[in-house]
Design a protein that fits this description.
By secondary structure, the chain is an all-alpha fold. 67% of the residues lie in helices and 0% in strands. The protein folds into two domains: 155 residues, no CATH class; 110 residues, Alpha Horseshoe (Serine Threonine Protein Phosphatase 5, Tetratricopeptide repeat), CATH 1.25.40.10.
Length: 318
């Protein structure tokens, strides 16, 4: 949730700015900061405040601070948010020009010789008075968000080895091979794979516990993010089949086979669904086929039972 869209330069929720912690903060630091904010905004701490300020504090805590804290402490959202930060830094760097910022702190960070130290100091300074004036909280969050933006931009340029270190080594050993980088920068494709893997791993855990509905939800979220991913559609078709939802299984198997006609899992799912559907049609035809010139239906009741996907999974058609 963004309290003021004009103040935010990031294209995703900046949970770190809301809490006033650096994007490099660990879980312990995030929790410590959250507890401090919760105490500041608690009704007991505002016993002498006006009703409007007390209500504003309650809204900030419930609508901004609590969601941000949950997003940074829950494993799923925290992992994905961290990946998004890396992707954002890389995309900023690929643009080739520095982001446009308005706050003095962000502009200073853009030129600071030691970005890490300057960034932590600037965040700490803003966070110290972030909730002193509740009317200006969104403005301070916007300034923190700009700091985060510039830090991501600058840190993405320093993911590899520093420029000075290889040069020094070259002077000392002219014939030596270039030093290998100790930092590997994930490519966008690798980051995408990491996000997909997190969805698939959670789906597999739910599947092992036969909690197919939650497994399906995980894969549906993955499909929303990556609508043309073969693995998502193929795996989702198998999950729908296990859950007894043949129609959905067919849809995703078909989509998977459009992406790769040789995908074995999707072909298997489609074959099972087609076999079940074909068997139902055949059974109905035999039930209505005249015997010995008798034009009456052999067993009309049986022709209306058990067919289609419901027959496959033992359900009753409603």
């Amino acid at each position: 949730m963004k309290p003021d869209q004009g103040l935010f330069q990031l294209d995703f929720d900046d949970h770190h700015a809301v809490l006033g912690v650096p994007v490099t903060a660990d879980a312990k630091a995030v929790r410590k900061r959250y507890l401090a904010i919760a105490r500041m905004l608690h009704p007991d701490s505002l016993s002498g405040a006006e009703a409007t300020d007390a209500q504003r504090a309650s809204d900030i805590l419930s609508k901004l601070v609590n969601p941000a804290y949950e997003a940074l402490t829950q494993e799923k959202s925290s992992t994905e948010h961290g990946i998004m930060l890396k992707l954002k830094g890389q995309s900023l760097r690929q643009i080739g020009t520095a982001p446009t910022v308005s706050s003095t702190e962000a502009q200073s960070l853009l030129k600071a010789p030691h970005a890490d130290a300057a960034y932590r100091k600037a965040v700490s300074s803003l966070a110290e008075s972030q909730f002193d004036n509740l009317e200006n909280v969104t403005e301070v969050i916007g300034e923190l968000s700009e700091l985060n933006l510039i830090y991501l931009y600058r840190s993405s340029a320093n993911d590899g080895p520093s420029a000075s270190a290889p040069a020094t080594a070259a002077k000392a050993r002219p014939n030596a091979a270039p030093a290998a980088s100790t930092t590997t920068v994930p490519t966008p494709r690798q980051n995408q794979a990491a996000i997909l893997e997190s969805y698939v791993n959670r789906a597999q855990e739910y599947e092992q516990n036969r909690d197919y509905s939650r497994a399906i939800l995980e894969l549906r979220e993955a499909v929303k993010a990556y609508p043309n991913n073969l693995q998502c559609h193929s795996y989702l078709s198998a999950l729908y089949l296990k859950a007894g939802q043949g129609t959905m299984a067919r849809i995703h198997a078909k989509r998977a086979l459009e992406i790769d006609p040789n995908d074995e899992r999707a072909r298997s799912v489609q074959a099972r669904v087609d076999k079940t559907s074909g068997g139902a049609t055949s059974g109905a035809a035999q039930a209505t086929k005249p015997k010995g010139g008798n034009t009456k239906t052999a067993n009309p009741k049986s022709a209306n039972q058990g067919g289609g996907f419901f027959g496959l999974f033992g359900g009753k058609k409603k």
